[in-house]
Write a structure and sequence with these properties.
The protein has 344 residues and is an alpha/beta fold. The chain has helices at 14-36, 39-45, 52-73, 110-123, 149-157, 171-179, 205-214, 258-267, 278-290, 309-324, 332-337; strands at residues 2-3, 75-84, 87-88, 90-96, 129-135, 139-146, 190-196, 217-223, 230-231, 233-236, 239-243, 253-254, 271-274, 295-296, 300-307. A hairpin with a 3-residue loop joins strand 5 and strand 6. Helix 4 packs across helix 9.
């Protein structure tokens, strides 16, 4: 079972408050009765007043509120398993998370622009499987191949420049790790979308791309940044406190290296596109996907979760309906049972 809207569980705190209000009201009534006169005499003056009914009414009310809360939470239960077949390709997004991606020559900055582009690409996908790799001085697996686009977007938004400890930009490591995401035996088309400013601080990116080409991978590179370049702001709580400096204490100017990205794409007969124009990137990716052969994935078992809120809602309304007809006077057949020893 899974809960669809867990935030509504906080409403459970209302239930103890209802109990406290009930007990406070009960205490106030008893106090007023004592002020009026002897309790035994008061009971004789109101022989039809029940001790049991007020307790029953508050129990019914609490259960009704409980049902309403669980209806809002919307529990879901996997009621059946079904085989789902999908047709598409395998896509891995390799995202540069080096410090240079904090440069603001592209609004709001290179990293956030990259996230926007990937999110938009995911929005226009159909049944393709996707994975995510992060890289700087080394590469790091973020999300394995999946068809859950919602989870992919969640991981995408959490990416930052602190997730890879070694700094720099190692494009060859990103390509090598991405290639492990694909099944060598599978006939499914393989596409790597590599997003970076192209400032490669390693060697062998083209060689890694050539090896990827042998595995049947196609690489599309997306360049983020400008050739003019920009400084790398260092921020604390959103306020700029300085700029990234090199070993000589000089402020670093990071620039888009389009040449290296074009060479990588060419090695796999892929393509390069400038990422500063999101619309242009989406059109380029769409055209590329249209020209890539799609294959049927292996059948996958998936749980079909069904909402159960209607049962709790019906239960709550039934109890509220019953509560309307629950009077605080004694019920004749219950009175005969004398469960609470009230017939004195």
């Amino acid at each position: 079972m899974e809960l669809d809207e867990k935030k509504y569980l906080y409403l459970l705190f209302i239930l103890p408050l209802l109990v406290l209000v009930f007990l406070a009201n009960l205490y106030w009534k008893r106090k007023k009765q004592r002020e009026f006169g002897d309790l035994e005499m008061v009971k004789k003056l109101s022989p039809e007043s029940s001790v049991f009914k007020p307790v029953l009414k508050i129990v019914v009310l609490i259960l009704a509120f409980l049902g309403l809360i669980f209806a809002l939470v919307n529990p879901k239960i996997g009621t059946k398993m079904e085989t789902v077949k999908r047709e598409g390709i395998d896509i891995v997004f390799a995202m540069d998370v080096s410090k240079s991606m904090l440069a603001e020559d592209v609004a709001p900055n290179r990293l956030d622009k990259s996230k926007q582009i990937v999110s938009q690409i995911i929005n226009q996908l159909g049944s393709d499987r996707i994975g995510i790799v992060a890289y700087a001085g080394s590469a790091f697996p973020v999300l394995p191949i999946t068809t859950d686009y919602g989870v992919a977007k969640m991981f995408l938004q959490s990416m930052n420049t602190e997730m890879v400890s070694s700094q720099g930009t190692s494009l060859d490591e990103a390509i090598k790790l991405s290639s492990t995401y694909f099944d060598d035996k599978s006939k499914t088309s393989k596409l790597l979308i590599l997003i970076s400013d192209g400032e490669d601080h390693s060697e062998g990116a083209e060689s890694a791309a050539e090896e990827a080409n042998k595995l049947g991978m196609k690489i599309i590179t997306v360049g983020i940044g400008t050739e003019k370049g920009a400084t790398i702001p260092l921020k604390r709580n959103g306020v700029v406190t300085g700029f990234q400096k090199d070993n000589n204490n000089e402020v670093v100017i990071t620039k888009l290296n389009q040449t290296s990205l074009e060479a990588i794409a060419k090695a796999t007969k892929g393509g390069y596109v400038n990422g500063n124009n999101t619309k242009e990137v989406l059109e380029h990716i769409k055209n590329a996907l249209d020209n890539i052969q799609k294959t049927e994935f292996e059948a996958t078992e998936m749980a079909d979760f069904q909402s159960q809120f209607q049962w709790f809602l019906g239960f709550a309304f039934l109890l509220l309906f019953v509560d309307v007809f629950l009077l605080e006077r004694k019920t004749s057949w219950v009175k005969k049972l004398n469960l609470f020893n009230e017939n004195k």
